[in-house]
# Entry
Amino acid sequence: MDICLRIRLFSMNWCRTRHRSEETDIATFATGSAAAERAREQRVRRALSRCLADLDMRGEVAASFDRAAEVLENLVPALFDGDPDGARAAVLGSDLPTRELLDLVLRARLAVRRRKALQGERTERERAADAALRALADRPDPARPQDRERRRQIATAHTRLLGLIPDGVLTARPNGRLVHANQVAREVLGLRLSELKDTPIASLFVRQADAEDAWSTIEDDGGLRPREADLRGVGGRSFPARLTAARADGPDPRVLVVFRDLTEIRHIRSRLLETEKLGAMAKVAGSVAHEIRNPLNALFLNADLLEDELHEAGEAQETVDHILRVMREEIERLNEIIKNYLSLSKLGHADFQRLDLNEVVRDFAEEADEIGGRSNIRIEFRGGRSEAWVRADGNMLRRVLINLVQNAIDVSPPGATVVIGTRRLVRKVKLWVRDKGPGVAPEAEDQLFQPFFSTKERGTGLGLYLSREIILAHNGQIALRSMKPTGAQATMVLPRWREEEAS
# Structure
């Protein structure tokens, strides 16, 4: 065969073989690229599905789910491809608020980072994620003015609502540090809001065990049923409180603690028990007081007659005079006890009238000056210049003044002056009795107004207690404190007369 023909045939066979090989290589390459693309798409879909499922389960994006899904469908592939421009475009093309969009970017970034990738691919994906985050700072927030105004309105409404609640309300982070406290809580605790912020809520409990038990219950059960515990206020002052709490989960979780100061409630309970006991006792004593008084008057009269008879006979004067004097003193003491019990039994039947306290006290001071003269004690009245009208029972007020002035005379040295004063305040009237005695012992201050407690050897222990009950019946307050350098002062405050209340 011609050599040229052979060369031509070989060349044609080689070209056919080469062409077939190239077609096979192209088909193989195309098949591999399609498989790789399908695998990539599957990874993207899995990441996107995981991110959307997590978003749907948590429900932490305020915008609609469809709008959030649209952003993720554009953002996740861009992050997978390491495409900064695509990631930036996905962010800038969304009209979601910046805070919600930031949540989506972070979720997409986390979902992509969980997928296997080479080191170079990871770097490209990180760059794309950084571009998306920078785009958040560059884009205008379409909802920012509205959100800011809405947040301001909500904050104002919450502040007003918390201000109307009569209980103390504390808001804390999940780590137990305080974020906010309403006005009632700040007043009860005696602390400013700046002092309460970031304070561990456990530091407000007197007993650490109570704090740990309450917080563990909140973490385990999501709330706290009403329970009582002692809380600590300013200066270490402790007070009983009734607590309840609830945990609010969400993007910004908080723990809400509501407490009520039980100091006044416990005081009222104690007063009710005390009043019930003494009321029953006063009722019995008042019913028999009149029966006891008649024999006492007869004893007193016969003691005077016996003294006159013995004086005329002139026998054993010194011994008999001492015995008769003791009898009269004891009869007077019994008579004073009966007066107190009778006054106690009449507390529920007070005859309130419009009285000028200055006039009432002035008249009493003139009469009491004669009583003080027997012990060489001068009674001085210092009244205010303006009228001091109060709603009171005149006889009851005189009973209070008799008890207080008699105590002042008993403790003052001869030649001293007991001062009774009045003063009109803005909404109240102040009345005080001041002596020149040794003052009140610190250990006795808390017991002075307790029934049957007396610092005098022969005291009944009912005078100050009765005085307190009368003042409380007038919606007033009374206190007894030592004065400097010497003496003590009993201070009473009564509400001023108001025409609108009278009508």
The first strand starts at residue 168 and ends at 172. The longest helix spans residues 3-58. The chain has four domains: 11-142, 153-261, 266-345, 350-502. The domain at 350-502 is CATH 3.30.565.10 (Heat Shock Protein 90).
